[in-house]
Structures are given as structure tokens and as C-alpha cells.
Amino acid sequence: MTKRKDGLEGIDDGALKKKITSEKSDGRPWSELPMDVLGDISRKLNLVDHLAFGGVCWSWRMSALASERDVIASQPPLVVLPSISVDKVLSLLLWLSSGYLVFQDGKGKDELWLINPITRHELKFPTPPTNISHATITSPTTASDSSIVALSRDFVHLLFYRPSDDKWTIYKTPEPKCFYADIIVFKGQVYVLTCNGKIWNLRLQSDASLTLFAVCDNPVRCSTILRRFSFQYCPNVFLVASDDELMMVNFRVFTRPKIFKVDLETRKGVVTNSLGDKALFIADMSRALISNPTKWGGRSNCIYALDYYLDPIYVLSLEGKILQTLQDTGSSRCRKCTFYSLYWYFTNKCFHVDFLNEN
Fold first, then answer.
1. What is the reported pTM?
2. What is the 3-state secondary structure (H, E, C) of the chain?
3. Of 134, 153, 296, 325, which alpha carbon lies 20 to 30 A from 61's?
């Protein structure tokens, strides 16, 4: 036993380093572990650990990619709570798009900043000419070449910016006495919903155009609801999509929602009374139609409602009745965060951009 440089008794630093080096040289490199062993390990990790696992080396990355779909499918949507008080707010969280959080400063003077909190990939777009309510990128798989589409905060303007543009383009509402309600990207196309239940197709080629795509049968009259984080009255109708279905939803908590399934061939929206093996997740700034939630212990053919004014998460039937209440979301603890609201983060979207260098 000798005295180490740090003053403690034991093996001296030089001997300890030599011992560790010797032990390493006797074992098999971690990068050469069998792929079946790596696969068993990666499938048991949570989402964040799975991402870190894939960043160790090339062989671990290949194993993580192979098990990625299974890992993502086993993860429920996350409830994200603000953790800062109003006097410390530097940026305004506007929306969630393809796994990205969309930020802008509260005065609307800075560029839009998009960040994927899981992969840490970032995107930036020029400052829009007007305050916007929410935005979506059009090509999450090639985000660096993506366009961005947004709605103005008063819902009377549609804005978009393409990589080849030097400024934003603005469209007024396509019909009088009408306002925009929502935007979504589905199967490579941008769809825009107006408050009268009409769905429009926005084409972003060199000659951009907005044309009527589909009309929902007998849509209920669109009203507005107060969005907490921006103090704006927003439409209570919106678009949601899974991998294979596009729907329009008219929703208020504890009332029977009206759900329209959009047929892409007939270009009509027809009322449906069943979501099948899917569940609808709704929050102020994020919503999605999630397939097979039973994989992670959830319910199908129901609605998960997350609201700033509700402490528990309510699981509702399609008749608007309470099926289940989940844990306290902590909303009562974050009501001092005036500019923020609760939202869902959908883990199945967070890997849409693979920014890691494979070399």
C-alpha cells in the first residue's frame, strides 16, 4: 500500500492505471459484442437511454437502428410540464411538429428556433412577418431541406417559407367570413383546415397554390376556445393523422366529439363513431392519432384529454364520458408559467430525423 497523490492510502495512481490497462487488454472490445446480445440490451432501454446506446459506436448504432421501431412502439406519449416561472421566460413555445418544439421570443422579433429534445437536432427559420399561432415543418425526414408552414395568431393568414425563398409568403383565407383552423402534413402533402369544415391542399412547388381538397358532411359550427399560453381564442376543430388515416375532429372536453374520417379518393369527410385500434391524444399545442396504444398498456378507441385547467388526465369515450382518470399532471404547480401550457410529446415522431454521422 502506498500513499496516492490525492493523499489517500491504497494503490498509487501509476499502478492503478497500469492495472486498468491490463484488464482492458485481456477482455473483448465492447464494440465486438455479438449483435444478438446488443439487440437484447437495446430493446430493454427507455427512449433516452436507447438514443445514448446508439451513439457509442458503429456496431451499437446498427443494433439500435434494428430495434428502434420496437422501442418506440413500446413508449407511451410523454406529458411535458413547464418548469420555469413567468419572469424567466425567454422564448415562447408555439407548437410541436414532427418531434420538434417550435420556439420564438415572446415579442415575435427573433427567428423561429426548432429543436428536437430527444435527438438535440436543431433547425432555424427567418422571422415571420406576423405573430404566428403554430407551425409545422413539411419534410421531417430531410429536415435541413424542409419548408415551414404556419398560421397567424389571429387565424386569418396562412404563411410558408421554402428553402429557396428570400421571404415568407402570406395567403389570406380562401373564402370570406372564414378563418383558418389547422395545418397538417400527411403522406407528403400539406393540408389546411378552415373553420367551415373544408380541407385545402397547399402545394409548395415553384408556383405555390391553395386548392380545395375535401369537404366534411354536415360539419358542426366551429367555435373557439381560449388557449392559455397565448391568451388567444383558437378554433376547436383540428386535423389529426396516423400512418394511414386523416381525420377532422371537433372537440370540447366532456362533450360528445364529432369525428370525420377523410376519404382521400372521394375527397369527403364522413362521420365515424369508432377509432378502431387507435386512440386520440389531445392537448393545447399537440394532438395525434396513435395506433395500438395497448402495446404500452393504454386504451384504444378513446380520447386522452390533457388540459391546462384539468389536474388529472381524462380518458374519455367517444360519447364524451369519463372512462378513467390518470395521475395528477402537476398543472396546479405550473400555473404561474403564464406563457406555457401542458402538452403531449409523441415519442414515435422523435426519430424522424437521423442527424448522427454514420461514418
1. 0.77
2. CEECCCCCEECCHHHHHHHHHHHHHHCCCHHHCCHHHHHHHHCCCCHHHHHHHCCCCHHHHHHHHHHHHHHHHCCCCEEECCCCCHHHCCCEEEEEECCEEEEECCCCCCCEEEECCCCCCEEEECCCCCCEEEEEECCHHHHHHCCEEEEECCCCEEEEECCCCCCCEEEECCCCCCCEEEEEEECCEEEEEECCCEEEEEECCCCCEEEEEEEECCCCCCCEEEECCCCEEEECEEEEECCCCEEEEECCCCCCCEEEEEECCCCEEEEECCCCCEEEEECCCCEEEEECHHHHCCCCCCEEECCCCCCEEEEECCCCCEEEEEEECCHHHCCCCCCCCCEEECHHHCCCCCCCCCC
3. 296
